């Protein structure tokens, strides 16, 4: 049996050996590597002969850091443009009355109430709603008040207090408290015939309609209703106020006549008064005005000394059996 013959590849011939370098070349190469760098000339010494000093490299200044961008400032919003002022109505005659005064003159309400009604839009002048305080109107203008205003007035209260001595009628003075502090639930007269029940809102806007001296007692009226206040203390008020006055001294007939009519105080002639004896120690005064300490000053003019003063009636409303320091509501059927 014949075996196959394998042909092996021929080996490449060996590479020729490198030729040896001459000794002088090897020595020169080693000398080049071992040759030191030229030294830098020192300051103040001449450069060595046989070569130039190596030039110094210029130092480059460091670049300044780029500035950081500033934070953006917040931009304030532009204010909204103001609306153009409304054109005023046709000018009014300065001699014409203000609306609130005209309403008071017509008996519709007090000036204070009129201002409130106007602000609430409850008043029409010649068919147009007026909400601006101080508006002037003609005396022939037609003024209408919304029924809501009448309802508001109907909810207002009037309170009758039997003021004791030692309290002032209005604002505190000389360490004395105002009589208003006595109007609280515990001082409400248990026999008050009015069906009203006390509410804190009854004190809102409550004000005295008249005055009584610190050393005087009797009926003192407080009200939220401007119509009541105007009737009692308005400049043209004709409501009678009755007083019982305890006096000491002798009163001649001529002096009694002077008390009734013809006396002046502070250069103003007083309105006629009704003065009579209630008993041997008390005079009864009925006045239609109320000047400060009027009765005491009138009595001093005729030689009398007042030792006690009590108001017992205002218009058609008597003090009655109301105890000292207590109060009650004005009834719907009572009128000053």
Give a structural overview.
The chain is of the alpha+beta class. Among the domains are: 99-153, RNA-binding S4 domain (Structural Genomics Hypothetical 15.5 Kd Protein In mrcA-pckA Intergenic Region, Chain A, Roll); 156-237 and 316-336, Pseudouridine synthase I, catalytic domain, N-terminal subdomain (Alpha-Beta Plaits), CATH 3.30.70; 240-314, Alpha-L RNA-binding motif (Alpha-Beta Plaits). Helix content is 18%, strand content 18%. The chain has 7 helices and 14 strands. The strands form 3 sheets. Strands 4, 5, 6, 7, 10, 11, 12, 13 and 14 form a 9-stranded mixed β-sheet that branches. Strands 2-1-3 form a 3-stranded antiparallel β-sheet. A two-stranded antiparallel ribbon has the order 8-9. The longest helix is centred in the N-terminal third of the chain and has 12 residues, at 23-34. The N and C termini lie far apart (163 Å).
Beta strand %:
15-25%
**Which architecture of the domain at 156-237 and 316-336 would the CATH scheme give at its second level?**
2-Layer Sandwich
| Largest sheet composition | 9 strands, mixed
Rg (CA only) = 56 Å
What percent of the residues sit in helical stretches (DSSP H or I)? 10-25%
User: What is the number of strand segments?
Assistant: 14
Shape: elongated
What is the residue-averaged pLDDT? Answer: 81
- By secondary-structure content and strand pairing, the structural class works out as alpha+beta
CATH homologous superfamily placement of the domain at 156-237 and 316-336? Pseudouridine synthase I, catalytic domain, N-terminal subdomain
CATH fold-level label of the domain at 156-237 and 316-336 = Alpha-Beta Plaits
The number of helical elements comes to 7
Distance between the termini: 163 Å
At the first level of CATH, the class of the domain at 156-237 and 316-336 is Alpha Beta
The SSE string, one letter per element, is HHHEEEHEEEHEHEEEEHEEE
Give unreliable regions as ranges.
84-88
């Amino acid at each position: 049996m014949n075996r196959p013959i394998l042909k092996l590849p021929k080996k490449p011939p060996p590479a020729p050996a490198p030729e040896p370098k001459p000794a002088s070349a090897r020595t020169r190469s080693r000398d080049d590597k071992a040759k030191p760098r030229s030294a830098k000339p020192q300051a103040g010494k001449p450069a060595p002969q046989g070569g130039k000093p190596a030039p110094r490299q210029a130092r480059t200044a460091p670049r300044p850091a780029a500035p950081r961008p500033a934070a953006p400032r917040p931009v304030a919003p532009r204010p909204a443009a103001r609306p153009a002022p409304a054109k005023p109505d046709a000018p009014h005659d300065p001699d014409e009355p203000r609306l609130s005064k005209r309403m008071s003159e017509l008996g519709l309400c007090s000036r204070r109430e009129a201002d409130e009604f106007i602000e609430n839009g409850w008043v029409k002048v010649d068919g147009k709603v007026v909400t601006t305080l101080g508006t002037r109107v003609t005396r022939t203008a037609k003024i209408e008040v919304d029924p809501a205003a009448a309802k508001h007035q109907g909810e207002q209260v009037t309170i009758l207090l039997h003021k004791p001595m030692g309290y002032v009628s209005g604002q505190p003075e000389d360490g004395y408290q105002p009589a208003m502090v006595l109007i609280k639930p515990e001082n409400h007269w248990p026999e008050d015939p009015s069906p009203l029940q006390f509410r804190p809102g009854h004190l809102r806007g409550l004000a005295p309609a008249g005055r009584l001296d610190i050393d005087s007692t009797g009926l003192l009226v407080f009200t939220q209703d401007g119509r009541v206040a105007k009737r009692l203390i308005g400049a043209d008020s004709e409501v009678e106020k009755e007083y019982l006055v305890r006096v000491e001294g002798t009163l001649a007939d001529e002096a009694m006549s002077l008390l009734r009519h013809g006396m002046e105080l502070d250069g103003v002639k007083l309105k006629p008064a009704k003065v009579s004896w209630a008993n041997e120690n008390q005079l009864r005064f009925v006045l239609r005005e109320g000047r400060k300490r009027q009765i005491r000053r009138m009595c001093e003019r005729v030689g009398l000394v007042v030792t006690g003063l009590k108001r017992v009636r205002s218009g058609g409303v008597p003090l009655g059996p109301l105890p000292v320091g207590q109060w009650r509501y004005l009834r719907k059927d009572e009128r000053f």
